[in-house]
Amino acid sequence: MNKFLLRSLAFTAFSFSVVLAGNKTNKTTFTPRSPGADLPLQLLRWHSHTSDKGSNFGGRMQFNPFFEQSVNGSKVGKFFTFDNKQELSVKAGSSLTVAGGDVQPYNLNLTGAYDGKISFKPKRSVFGVEMSYVQDLKCMIHGLYFSITNPILYVQNDPGLRETISANGTTATHAGPLSITEFMKGARLTSDWSEPLKYGKVNGKQEITGMGDIDLKLGYAIVNNRSAKLAVNFAGTIPTSNKPDAEYMFQPLLGNGHHWAIGAGLDSSFHVWKSEKENDRYLHATLAADYRYLFEGHQMRTLELKGKKWGRFIRMRQADPRDTSEDRLLANSLPGINALTRNCKVTPGSQVDGIASICYKHNKHVHFNLGYNIWARESEKVSLKDSWTSAGKFGLISSNDAYQEEGVVTTVTKGSATGTEVESYPVYVNQNKLTSVVASTPWTIKKTGPADMFPKLVRPESKSTGISSDTTIAAYATGNGTYIQESDVDKAEHACAMSHKIYGGLDYTLDPERDYPVVLGLWGDYEFAQNNAALDQWAVWCKLGMAF
């Protein structure tokens, strides 16, 4: 039986390793491990403390000040780029639809003369105090207990945007941003951009202070004495922390993203060795695990265009909301990310947190601890809350320079193609100037998913009469002639994540013979992630615990 169990665990660990292999890339949302989902912080030295003398009232509380900081910024930076690249080249190519580097400058509201490189090196710092309280309910049922855990947190996130500029593309008529750093702050616009960058912004460090999620447990101790403990619990999480709104890349979060959760846990500890000469010396093992299922919640998430690398930044036009037919387009344009960021249904699903630790009691005052913690979370499930048509239709645009005035058209004719019909669209671009434009290229539609996963892009590539070629309004064409792109929710989902933590420390019990014992502790840990969907980080923390 034991061999079967060990083989099963080994197979499960191997399966997880295969699923988690390799870095994740071209993602739009990063949701780190919640500071409150930390079983070592909650349970270290809790078992021996709860069985100490005293505890007349049956209450036990602890305060755990801590500081943690991530260290794998270069690896996490690839999460937000594409093709697993640490650095992206931003340079114009030979045509409007092909970048000379990795990214077309025009999509970032820069002139075609811009030449530079960007990278990200995200870092998160957290300072907080986790407070826990356990109340014995033996007056109701012997062995029954209730616990509540709630952290107060300060979180600071820095996306770590680095930009190297070879040529900023400055021209006499360009009124827009002169760098990617400036564009991503969402401040400067050219005259023909109707909206600044609203989502996915980067503007230095972002910080938030507040209360983390509240974790509740109702448990039953089957065994609870100085030598051993075995308890089960039912648990729930009340979301009191902030909800992601997608305004900033690598947004700081106080909790799990504002999701309700329920779950269960197993908590056990036992003596593995005890000195025959000195009763105060022993070796104590702890095995514990918590499971949570995080329910669906609504969040703003940024989707991608399927098959496009950083397609979310491609410039777009929106249909004129004053036209009920939604066939007219506004003169001004907007960053594509503003159109592709939508209210979504997000289901994080299952999360597991487990520990295995050893505590050596040297005497009645001093304890040494060493342990291992594993944390894992399945991939999120994301879908649109509302259909694309609720926000109108959007057209993709291609042009040399964002600052130049766009051409004006009265009609655009969609050519015939398989599965489509020939249609003419009246196009409202400018009230004062009218020019005829006729599309000469068939407009094909890529349709591989549910209908509500399409951004309803309405512009085909067009040829103009009386309009210079550098102001042609066109779709962002692909090699196969696909001009309407399916949105990609996969890029908005946080991937399956797993991390491993080694922790250790010591604590000192003040006068353990007193009726109300007090414990002081100092600890440290290092956590390393299976891939870049979680953070490598280190932490130090203190513990003040008391029973009464």
Describe, in plain words, how this protein is organized in 3D.
This protein has about 550 residues and is mainly beta. It has a single domain, classed as Porin (Beta Barrel). The chain has six helices and 30 strands. The protein has helices spanning about 1-20, 40-45, 45-50, 75-80, 180-185, 335-340, and strands at about 60-70, 85-95, 100, 115-120, 125-135, 145-160, 160-165, 205-210, 215-225, 230-240, 260-275, 280-295, 295-300, 305, 315-320, 340-345, 350-360, 365-375, 380-385, 395, 410-415, 425, 435-440, 445, 465, 480-485, 485-490, 495-510, 520-530, 535-545. The strands form eight sheets. Strands 1-5-6-9-10-11-12-17-18-28-29-30 form a twelve-stranded antiparallel beta barrel. Strands 3-2-4-7 form a four-stranded antiparallel β-sheet. It has a three-stranded antiparallel β-sheet with strand order 13-16-19. The longest helix is centred in the first third of the chain and has 19 residues, at about 1-20. It starts with a helix and ends with a strand.
